[in-house]
Each structure stands twice: as structure tokens, then as C-alpha cells.
Write a structure and sequence with these properties.
By secondary structure, the chain is an alpha+beta fold. The protein has a single domain (42-206), classed as Muramoyl-pentapeptide Carboxypeptidase, domain 2 (2-Layer Sandwich). The chain has 5 helices and 6 strands, in the order E-H-H-H-E-E-E-H-E-E-H. It has helices at residues 41-56, 62-87, 97-113, 156-168, 197-206; strands at residues 6-7, 119-122, 129-134, 143-144, 173-179, 189-195. A hairpin with a 6-residue loop joins strand 2 (119-122) and strand 3. The longest helix has 26 residues, at 62-87.
Length: 207
């Protein structure tokens, strides 16, 4: 893919210099001590823009790029799901389909973006499809793509994370990202979840 992507990154805020001798290596820090910690939006956006540019040079089209972003998100999602389950005081594992979807809509979204998703809906046409929508996706707030790449949805990365969480919780599904603009929210993105048939069969047995 030869078309270059225009990326704008928010300016970073100044921080306090800490002597290196007092900074613990990240692998020596307790996982719970970083709970609630936030990464600046500018750092997050810069990192993702670098991922985009790196990936873009190694693909041949929009579908290929979205697939690569989804794959990267999947690897992130597997680790994030493990971390969230480990931090849960009750160590609860969701066994019901609606419960894991609600977990993604609330807990996962808050941990990633500081807010829950704007909606969780079931498809009126297909029993195996659910939709999680974000009216103003933070991930792509400062990313502008060229007109010839207008069909690209960089939130395929988020779809990969969602797919990994479902996979880790034993709810396999095909997860994709789609731009579904509505009045006032031109960048509104819907994460479409198409659950595996075995998941629906298991749900019937649990009723």
C-alpha cells in the first residue's frame, strides 16, 4: 500500500523528571499498583500511529491492513483479559453470553478508554449478532486517512481486542469494526460480534 496516511498527534504534557535509580523496572512492579493508572492520550495516539505506519508498509490493501490491525489487537486483548481477570477480587469467570458482553461494554471499555461504550445491542435480524458502539472512538480521534482509504476503519485493532476477550472467556466469535455515522457523531464506530454456533447452543443448554 503506497498511499501515505496523514496522522496528527496530540501534544504531550510535561512530566516530572524522576531519578532513574528510583524507578523500578516495569517487570518488577506489582500489577495491582498500576491499577487505575492512566496513559496520556498523546502517548497512546503516538504509539498507535506508529503501529499504523509500520503495518501500512507491509500490506497490499485496506482489507489486509484491517486484518493486520485485528491480529495485533487480538494479541493485546489476550493479555488484557488475563490482567483484568487477575485483578478481579472474586476471580469471577463469566459463563453467560450476556454477562461477558456486558463486561466488554463496561469493564473492558473503561480500562481501555476511561468510559464505557455508548451502547450494547442485539441484532434484530440475526440471533448470533451483537453490536457494541462507541460514538466518539478515542483511538482514532486524531487520525485522518486519505480519501482513497476512506473505507478503512482503524478500530479493527479494538475489534481484535474484543475478539480476544471473547476467545479467552470461551465465547469464540468473529469480530469486526464498522463506521456507522449518525447525526452529531460522524466517527461513530460499531463493533460487530458474530458468535460461534456452539456458543448459542451452549446458551440454550444453560437456560
Amino acid at each position: 500500500m503506497n498511499t501515505s496516511m496523514r496522522l496528527s498527534v496530540a501534544s504531550s504534557t510535561s512530566g516530572v523528571n524522576v531519578p532513574q535509580s528510583k524507578v523500578k523496572p516495569i517487570l518488577e512492579r506489582h500489577l495491582n499498583k498500576t491499577k487505575g493508572a492512566e496513559v496520556s492520550l498523546s502517548a497512546f495516539t503516538f504509539l498507535f500511529s506508529e503501529v499504523l505506519q509500520y503495518t501500512q508498509k507491509r500490506v497490499n490493501g485496506i482489507q489486509d491492513l484491517e486484518k493486520k490491525l485485528n491480529d495485533i489487537g487480538f494479541r493485546v486483548g489476550l493479555r488484557l483479559h488475563e490482567l483484568l481477570v487477575w485483578r478481579d477480587k472474586n476471580g469471577k469467570r463469566e459463563t453467560k453470553m450476556l454477562n461477558i458482553l456486558y463486561f466488554i461494554h463496561t469493564v473492558l471499555w473503561r480500562n481501555m478508554f476511561g468510559k464505557q461504550a455508548d451502547s450494547l445491542e442485539k441484532s434484530t435480524e440475526n440471533e448470533d449478532e451483537y453490536m457494541i458502539s462507541d460514538n466518539e472512538p478515542i483511538l482514532t480521534r486524531y487520525i485522518s486517512v486519505p480519501r482513497d482509504l476512506s473505507q478503512l476503519n482503524c478500530n479493527a485493532f479494538v475489534a481484535g481486542i474484543v475478539g480476544a476477550v471473547l476467545h479467552g472467556a470461551q465465547f469464540p466469535a468473529r469480530v469486526t469494526a464498522h463506521t456507522v455515522p449518525i447525526e452529531g457523531y460522524p466517527s461513530r464506530t460499531t463493533i460487530l460480534i458474530k458468535l460461534d454456533k456452539d456458543v448459542l447452543a451452549r446458551e440454550e443448554l444453560l437456560k
